[in-house]
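Tokens for chain A. Residues wanted.
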């Protein structure tokens, strides 16, 4: 699946995202900025197929920084993320 972001004025392409799936699980994304530079996000799952982590290398479409996000279980929601 591919998603394309456009500028609010003028409609120029700002970035595009290509999403990769394994079955119904999102496993990764490739983000390409309007300058042509790409970055990648990898998604990790636990043994119960719950998403636990997203690792993004330098994101040129946003601010050039890398990110690592950890998803936690919310006990108040019955253990859902």
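Reply:
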């Amino acid at each position: 699946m591919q998603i394309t972001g456009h500028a609010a004025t003028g409609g120029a392409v700002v970035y595009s995202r290509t999403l990769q799936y394994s079955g119904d699980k999102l496993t990764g994304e490739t983000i390409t900025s309007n300058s042509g530079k790409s970055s990648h996000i990898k998604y990790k799952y636990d043994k119960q197929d719950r998403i636990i982590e997203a690792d993004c290398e330098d994101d040129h479409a946003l601010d050039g920084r890398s990110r690592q996000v950890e998803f936690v279980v919310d006990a108040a929601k019955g253990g859902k993320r």
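The two ends are 24 Å apart (CA to CA). The domain at 2-77 is CATH 2.40.128 (Lipocalin).
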